[in-house]
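Worked Example 4.2. Read the sequence first, then its structure tokens.
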Amino acid sequence: MLDESLPELKALAKARADNDRADRERDRTRDHLREAVVSAVAVGVPEAEVARRAGVTRMTVRAWVGK
């Protein structure tokens, strides 16, 4: 049986928690970007321009707006 007080196991648990937090933050950031992309296209900004400014491909823009 492993000794749960090992510093390496504590460091591993912290790294896992940090990674999980980073994943959640990345998901929130991606959702925010997606909303901004959809809004820009909805008001008439060309897909290619939206893609360039958002740092994604035009096909990603099309997927996000449901085309």
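Now turn to a second chain, presented in exactly the same format:
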Amino acid sequence: MPNDWLVILPLLSLAAGGTAVFGAGAFWRSRPRELLFALSLITVAAAGAAVVLVAPQAASFSGVLDLGSYSRFFNFLFLAITGLTLLFVRHYARERGFAGDELYGLLLFAALGMALLAVARHWLIFFLGLELLSLSLYVLIAIRKGDAGSNEAGVKYFILGAVASAFLTFGIALLYAATGSLDIGASLGAELQPGALPLLMAALSLILVGVGFKISLVPFHLWTPDVYQGAPAPVTAFLSAGSKVALFAALLRFSLDLGPAAWSYALPAIWVLAVLTMVVGNITALRQTQVKRLLAYSSVAQMGYLLMALVAVKEGGAPALMFFLAVYAVMDLGAFGIVGTLSGTAADRDALENYRGLGYSQPWRAAVLAVCLISLAGLPPTAGFMGKLVLFKVVLQAHYRVLPVIGILTVIISIYYYIKVVIALYLQPRAAGTAVPRAEPSGVLAVAVILVLLLWLGLLPGSVLNLVSRIAG
């Protein structure tokens, strides 16, 4: 039992840190912003050290938690996302007046929710993590109280998120009725009588709807552009990179646990959703003139590529998915984070015309934004190219032919709207009246880390690919 408590030290660290931040905000009258930021960063660092240093363990607490290498990989990724978000949001929130305990405390509790999704081996733990993450994001999206766009985005995400949670809860209830178990592996892999199969299919369909909403699968994606545009840019970065990676990590686990009969029924649905998500996400992005909406539809399309590779998960596709999830997190976090550093206090820099000429007036940040966009397009030598390469490879090795062809065609389409932003940065004259705030140290550090990660994962991906291969094996 003492070892059980030791191996959940990352979870305990995040819970204690979030509580401490809220306590400091409640009982320290001046609510010092720098202290809250430092406390949050120390919490993330402590939790990250615990993930790295505490020895892995396959299961704990009566088997309801998976504390092995799979969950450790994703927990470290979530903590890296949270740490970079803290660096991006520090100056942004201070200039806009919401750098209080609510911001930092909810970021830590959202990270705890993501970690619970990664370690859950029981449906109640999974639901607890999902709701903790969702409730934190509802408030973070609407945290700019005086901004109508932020408030509208928060309300939309709350209402639609509540509906998605209802679908998910009902699906879990039907799954329990069909299998008699709340253990994720046992319920998904159970051998059922033929008469119980329709109930299982209904349960899996409802669960897929709930998860599909959270990761913006078509046709459950309609909230994405409005929420991404209305939320503060660093919060959008955290929402896009963190919550989607966490939910897809859970979806990957569900797919691996599914029994042969259920998997044979799930495959056609995954195939169709993957095609719809890739096609709709990329084609809709072509017409966007607002950068945050463009990136929102881009994130929809990226989920389509991941779902495409999910069909090969039973044939060894898990390492490719895990690698691309890490790559996606870095790309999207960097793109939205840099948008935040370039934005003034009145509103985020969103209109495409406001990016004209920034490659010369803001060479450092514009260059890294261009690298993020090129990586999202899947062009070498960036991490996005290598990530898409391994995804298409595993799908082809699983003897699927049509899916990769559709995927490659949509990648070609996507190059247009990504390069459109790069052209505005470097090949168009600077727009009048587009003052850019100065770069500040925490933001510069975050941008530098993003650039290093994108180039490292693109040029030297071997170490991470070997790591995820060992974990999946």
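Notes for the reader: The two ends are 28 Å apart (CA to CA). Strands lie at 57-60, 65-67.
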